[in-house]
Amino acid sequence: MRLHVGCAMWQLKSWQGRFVPSSGDRLRAYAGWCNAVEGNTTFYATPSLDTVRTWAEQAPADFRFVLKLPRGVTHGSHLSDVSALPEFLRVIEPLGERVHALWVQLPGSFGPGDLAVLARFLRHLPDHFRYAVEVRDPAFFHDPHRLEDTLATVGAEWIPFDTTEFFRTPPTSDAERDAWLKKPRMPLRTAALTDRPIVRYLGRDAEDRTVEGWRKWVPIVADWLREGRSPTFFVHTPDNADAPGLCRRFHDEVRALVPALAPLPTPLIPEDDGPPTLF
Predict the structure, then answer these.
(1) Any idea what DSSP says for residue 210?
(2) CA distances (Å), 86 to each of 42, 90, 96, 133, 167, in order?
(3) What Gene3D superfamilies has UniProt attached to this entry (predicted)?
(4) DSSP state letter for 80
(5) Contact (CB, 8 A) for 75 and 32
(6) Which residues lie across from 7 on neighbouring strands?
(7) Side-chain half-sphere of 132: how many Cα atoms within 13 Å?
(8) How do strand 64-68 and strand 99-105 relate by DSSP bridges?
(9) Tens of pLDDT along the chain (279 residues)?
């Protein structure tokens, strides 16, 4: 029984000396705090094979990467041009089982009328990977069964991006104002389709607001674990300054309901700034 928690990245300037060292193996240090990460960088550029080999060396065997497919595939061509996929799939091979799912994030312009395109795309993907789809058109949530049926044909998961707490009240910081303009206002979805549900959650810069917003998720994730599922929960805040510690706090809150849940690893101490703090 494992709950994986993680952030949108494994290094951030504000984390240096606190969660990760200022230089060196930052992924290795991050993996002491969290046991999963969103692979957002692969959306913008396919990394080199040597880079991915370095990731594989630093990440433990039970670490999870949820890697976003290249934007040229999902956004630039609406899934019609897959010429970048063979190289992308070749490059990520060193990660092996650490690739928990390949993440198909679709733009807001991709709506329910494009489901046939999505179905065709998913059917032609290699079946030795797991897939998870994130949609940004709210119309999918009005009649979710059509998308659910499409995903079920290939055993793919639907990734909800819970932004409800973030948009509940106006922004109060520069980071929140920036996120207010960029993040999608998505309806709340709490259903899982597979044995590996994935949730993206956006809180606020204030820790108490972030924790308040995820309260509904704690019993849901606990129930998933009791059902034999293996969930992954990603914690975002507008500045992400405290995200690794918040991930551990979420894990602790779920573990309080499910004592059989294995604890997270003990964090590594950044060599350049003494013992880190959780919050």
Answers:
(1) H
(2) 14, 6, 16, 19, 38
(3) Protein of unknown function UPF0759
(4) S
(5) no
(6) 37
(7) 27
(8) parallel
(9) 899 999 999 999 999 989 988 888 899 999 999 999 999 899 999 999 999 999 999 999 999 999 999 999 999 888 988 888 999 999 999 999 999 999 999 999 999 999 999 999 999 999 889 999 999 999 999 999 999 999 999 999 999 999 999 999 999 999 999 999 999 999 999 999 999 999 999 999 999 999 999 999 999 999 999 999 999 999 999 999 999 999 999 999 999 999 999 999 888 766 654 444 443
Residue 214's identity, in one-letter code, is W
Residue pair 200/4 in contact by the 8 Å Cβ criterion: no
CB 122 within 8 A of CB 150: yes
Provide the CB-side half-sphere exposure for 148 (13 A, CA): 12
Distance linking the first and last C-alpha atoms of the chain: 26
The residue type of 199 is: V
β-pairing, 198-202 with 157-158?
unpaired
SS3 track for the chain: CCCEEEECCCCCHHHECCCECCCCCHHHHHCCCCCEEEECHHHHCCCCHHHHHHHHHHCCCCCEEEEECCHHHHCCCCCCCCCCHHHHHHHCHHHHHHEEEEEEECCCCCCHHHHHHHHHHHHCCCCCCCEEEECCCCHHHHCHHHHHHHHHCCCCEECCEECCCHHHCCCCCHHHHHHHHHCCCCCCCCCCCCCCCEEEEECCCCHHHHHHHHCCHHHHHHHHHHCCCCCEEEEECCCCCCHHHHHHHHHHHHHHHCCCCCCCCCCCCCCCCCCCCCC
Structural domains of the chain, ranges and CATH numbers in brackets:
4-257 (3.20.20.410)
Whether the Cβ atoms of residue 238 and residue 12 lie closer than 8 Å to each other: no
